[in-house]
Amino acid sequence: MKIKKYQGETEEQVIEMAKNELGNDAIVLSIKKITPTGIFSIIKKPYIELTASYDENKVKLTNDKSKNFFTKSTSNSMENKLKEKDDTIQRLEKRIVELESYLEKAMKSLSLEKDANNNKYKNQLVQFIYEMLISKGVHPAVCSDILEPVDKEQNQNIDLIVKVVYNKIIEILEKAVCRDLVIERTDNKKEAKSIVFLGTTGVGKTTTIAKLSSELIMNRGAKVGFITSDTYRIAAVEQLKTYAEILGSQVEVVYTIEDVKEKINKLKLINDYIFFDTAGRSHKNEKNMEEIKELLKEIENPEVYLVISSTSNFEDIENIINTYSRFTKFNIIFTKIDETDTIGTILNIAYKTKYKIAYVTVGQNVPSDIEKFSGEKIAKVLLGSMYK
Ligand SMILES: Nc1nc2c(ncn2[C@@H]2O[C@H](COP(=O)(O)OP(=O)(O)O)[C@@H](O)[C@H]2O)c(=O)[nH]1
Ligand SMILES: [Mg+2]
User: Fold this and answer.
1) What is the distance in A from the centroid of ligand 1 to the CA of 251?
2) Order of strands, sheet of 47-54, starting from the edge strand that comes earlier in the sequence
3) What tens digit of pLDDT does each residue of 288-320 get?
4) Fewest Cβ atoms nearer than 10 Å: which of 117, 169, 260, 271?
5) All structural domains of the chain with their residue ranges
6) How far is CA 61 from CA 4, 58, 72, 218, in A?
7) How far apart are CA 288 and CA 293, in angstroms?
8) Predicted confidence (pLDDT) per residue in 21-44, tens digit
9) Any idea which fold 182-382 has?
10) Which pairing describes strands 303-309 and 331-335: parallel, antiparallel, or unpaired?
């Protein structure tokens, strides 16, 4: 038995072709639609292919090797023509394959060129670092300042580029490190030092107060009293009272501005520090801001911390800082570092403002999840490590 394939536009056509050549005894093995792929799909339409088997002893095909002399002699010119046609098809097919690979290469280099055109930096590693910094929330202007000088340098190896970028980031962050931390001071004054925590609702003010005061009370033997003006949120006073109870501290609540002085007087001679917890206030609400201003006026020489969630976006943080900066000095505490994907915001703030960053908080656990602000740790995260 031998196999022969027929190609045509329709099933009827290929069956007819097979029948004419192989006769009624031929067996149809398969009929399928062939859809050319790749570049062939452009130049060749789908077609039907029939595969048939036949008995070579019964059927003599014109181009069959077993054909007899008679068939050969009578169809010699026809056979030559068919062979010529076969050769031409083979040549064409070879050419198409060549063209296909040429086109593929051309398209690849075109898309590479397109990507390269979209690149901001010539050096691929610098470009990679740029994309990583952007994905972590670093402002494009800050990226440019860090990366442009590196990109311009010739013949730099990978280690050197990473080192230069890392050092530049550290340099920006280190300028923002607050060196005057409340928990590292011993206030030898007779009267307590007032530490005030401001910031929008839910950023972690009360939790941060609990963390810092625990460190002072438990590890440094200090005495800390609490005053809260957060009487707006249900359970806010209870939350602070719970911490105070554990720490053996006293809590006073102020309901009106007139209460403030009186409550300070109650606590100032028996404590080293008074921690002020305030209600989360919207920096966009002028009346809220007036209240904070009034509260601060009542406190002698307050040390203020602006508590900011690192999960907020850079523009919002900038607005918050600008609003508070109009009426008070402060250091910043960034909370929820463990929850943010855009730690670059901290670099932006360090780069764009003159404010110092005192602490970062890294989780909900009291008292452990608070640390002094470290430029090194943030820089490592920006270059791809985990915060640890
Ligand atoms: N993941 C995480 N959650 C925090 C952190 N600090 C505070 N929180 C949580 O944020 C929520 C609000 O905190 P709270 O101290 O009541 O915020 P406040 O309204 O500013 O006083 C609470 O569920 C805290 O446990 C932190 O560093 N990381
Ligand atoms: Mg609170």
Assistant:
1) 20
2) 2-8, 47-54, 27-34
3) 889 999 999 999 999 999 999 999 999 999 999
4) 117
5) 2-86, 119-175, 182-382
6) 10, 10, 10, 102
7) 9
8) 898 888 888 888 888 765 455 556
9) Rossmann fold (3.40.50)
10) parallel
